[in-house]
Specification:
There is one protein chain. By secondary structure, this protein is mostly helical. It has two domains: 33 residues; 70 residues, Glutaredoxin, CATH 3.40.30. Helices cover 57% and strands 11% of the residues. It is built from six helices and two strands. Strands 1-2 form a two-stranded parallel ribbon. It starts with a helix and ends with a helix.
Length: 106
């Protein structure tokens, strides 16, 4: 077998493998859960109590700031994770952006 033939076989194998992985991932329940691709954060804590109670969900309150590296890391890693998004769906999520709170207080 020559080098070119081997490369073509490898390329074909990886194309088939990639196609199978895609086909399986599209049809699995995890991709159905990932259809909700983000957490929908409510911005006002005071106004969150009534709808949370109506939905029978406890509040999940996150305090963050635009300048905070740890907050950005959590937003970019944890809150985009499909498993975490699914868990967060059990709560009524409220995000308090401290930059806004401090600006309003001035």
């Amino acid at each position: 077998m020559q080098y070119g033939e081997l490369e073509m076989k490898k390329s074909g194998f990886f194309s088939v493998l990639l196609g199978l992985v895609f086909a399986v991932s599209v049809n699995t329940p995890i991709s159905m859960a990932a259809a909700k691709s983000k957490i929908v954060w409510h911005k006002n804590l005071k106004n969150a109590f009534k709808p949370a109670k109506q939905q029978g969900k406890p509040l999940m309150v996150e305090f963050m700031a635009e300048w905070c590296p740890s907050c950005k890391m959590t937003e970019d890693s944890t809150f985009v994770n499909p498993a975490e998004i699914k868990k967060a769906d059990r709560f009524f999520p409220v995000r308090i952006v401290m930059d806004s709170v401090l600006a309003e207080a001035k």
